[in-house]
Sequence to fold (127 residues):
Amino acid sequence: MSSLLTESDLIHEAEVVWLESPQKLDYVRQALDKTRRRNTKPPYARDGRMVGYALLDEDASPDPDSGLYRRRVFFLLPHDRDSLPDGLYSEGAPGEAVDPRTIAPRKPGTKTPRSQSGSVAVAASAS
Fold:
């Protein structure tokens, strides 16, 4: 999935749990993962690290075919801006990246100048 999630994808979100402070991150990647449980920390099998995840409300139903819940996970990869500030994403951001300050339960998050250009560029343009 990408940052093109819609509110209808997230109607059963009850809470967003952050494992790292979103205030310190210019962007996070988001994806919908299938998990066995709706209200515990989901497993993480990507490179990089999980920085947050969504908990679902009691009305959420698992997929009838797989028995799994679709939940949003927030993550960063080893080559993302927080780890390599002068790397590939020193300017710009991956397609699924959004500003973590714009994320809330049932809200997909948005791209902002900070998520796309970096906090240093935003601070310089404000001067």
Summary: Strands lie at 13-18, 28-35, 49-56, 69-76, 97-98. The longest helix spans residues 119-126. Residues 19 and 51 are 5 Å apart (CA to CA).
